[in-house]
Amino acid sequence: MSTHPEQSNDDGAMPHPELVAHDDADAIYRDGRRLDHAEAASRLLRSRPEKQPRGAKIHGNRPIDHAKAAARFIAAPEHEKMHDERLWDLRQKRDREMHGIAEWEELRSLASAIKEHTLTHLDAYLDQFEANARSNGIHVHWARDAAEHNRIVHGILTGHGAKSLIKSKSMLTEECAFRHYMASVGIEVIETDLGERIQQLDNEDPSHVVVPAVHKLRTDVAEVFARTIGTDPDNSDVHYLAEEQREANRPLILTADAGMTGANFVVAETGTFVVCTNEGNADLSANVPKLHIASIGIEKIIPRLEHLAVFIRLLSRSALGSPITQYTSHFRGPRAGGEMHVVLVDNGRSERLGMAEFWTSLKCIRCGACMNTCPVYRRSGGLSYGATYSGPIGLIIDPTFNARKYSNLPFASTLNGSCSNVCPVKINIHEQIYAWRRELVKQHEVPFAKKAAMKAAGALLSHPAAYRAAIAAADWALAHLPRFIIYNRLNAWGKHREVPHPPKQTFHSWYQANRGGKE
Amino acid sequence: MSSRDEILALIRANLPRVDRPLPAVPLFDDNRSASLLGAFKESLERMGGVLLDPPASGDVLAPVREKIANAKVICSTVPEITGNRDIAAICRPQELADVDFAIVRASFGVAETGSVLLSESDLKVNAVAYLAQHLIVLLDPADIVVNLHHAYRRPELRNGHYACFHSGPSATADIEGVLIHGAQGVRSLSVLPIARGAGNPLPDTGNPHHDRSQGGV
Touching check for A244 and chain B: CB below 8 Å? Predict the structure, then answer.
């Protein structure tokens, strides 16, 4: 390690340049170049301590109030700025990678086509995978829903007398509330991904599919570790915190009775499943204990190894702007003396396959690129969505689990389309967000205020004279009303921003005066 | 009806009735670099690894000996270097927890990403590559393929039960984006370019799928 202050990776405007720290002594260099592989930021950033804002409050089946939780996040400026900066940096790193690969757009088209082909032949490919995995010595189980998944895994663990389980990060197990279930049956689960471990120790869900603790500042982590693994509460040095958790996790890894991973991809022709991590924690979880269980969503399947190349090239570049994850692990069967189980989980996926407007959301490879680019996500934090999946992809997946509870989420978008533009498998995310709004109105899951406003707008827009009168009145009002009438809590458009300066004249009146009657 | 049959039946009932043919995937290898080893080195270092340059003395193993000179526990699965922890005598992976340096040979490397593929037959005990504090990988420059499309045509990924691309060391930046090497697994990854079999500069890798045109080093 050495420092090269003259070296910087300055390749774009920062949303919050004031966060840059100049004492980057611990940065790692190769050949004069500051490394920023994996989820590393391209510059050292510095936050000031601030109490961590908490996510959305869950009240059973009642609709999540995303806006309220987002307001709490925005009211914590240190958190909000760091979050915004970190994710925008990942987006810029992604762009840098994209520009380095001439065939990038072709890879996206291939990835989309491979996924759509597989999903339209899903039964046949699952069948093929199962047969190949079985002949390699893997035990294959099928779970209709989260409860069945948890029961199956519990059964396997009980059969081996296993009392502790080390696992790598898996959004599917989050979907199944797996840790919660395991706690209820007295089995200790230890997350081995640093970010996920932080979230587990803080009793909080992951806020992002790839960087689960990205909403936390270093001081938040120091507080959690001081409380749970006994670190110095006043030491928030990131190297210290990471090393302490490594040392705390190690004995747990060495004594665990069983290991668990998810899977990023499943290859039908070989019976392989593939796990991508940066920490090597999936390989520890799978290769240290005798028993390895993998929980896999049925949509993860692709036909052949040659297709895997396309997805591995896209995944980490889209997610983190890093050429590949540090580890790309291929499991095709148990190791000598070991035992391997795969649980294929449906949990609503087969039903989603039948939804004409939404089935292509099953193409998702959980890279999080749509989250990193989304202006709403970046400023509101993943926990404000109150759901397993947050950000743009969450808006179109969550309502398939519970249309009432997640009825507000499709409105947490400006429909700017950036999510669709960065999606490596070309899901038309913003169009599906819009389609969900229509769907929820049809299902009467949209609150009264929103419906009344839409109805009034609809009436206005269908009567030109009334519309022109309203625009002129609004322009006059903006120009003449005192600030306190425009900027108050009844006008959401006046929050955190200036409303536009009213024009002296509407376009229609200008046209009448200058061009009217000349046609 | 079993869960399996129920899920498959539901899928069949819901399959989108659209025609989506499976595309052919090109190899995307028109613009290969003049030196695959040079491209490999650049990619490896971007991912946080180190390429051990052979010293002028011609003693190619010297950089490895230098690295492990002060290490207590060395576990080698390669004939070129002798360790002091016999991997053949390991009954449980946990017995490797105190290894300082593990030394293994890669099946092959990938220039595009600086990756080395370590299979179960390279590792003998899979966990050695993750429990050790540091990992040194020997790689025959003739075993470098240009990109992942070529990599996924190799037999190692088709036949074995376990194979993993290592691209640099174990890393995390989960806290404020600060890069850490040695998150849970190895703290460093060094790759030594050295042909298979001592004194044989361009050996036959014995791999029928090996593309001779890739040996441009």
Answer: no
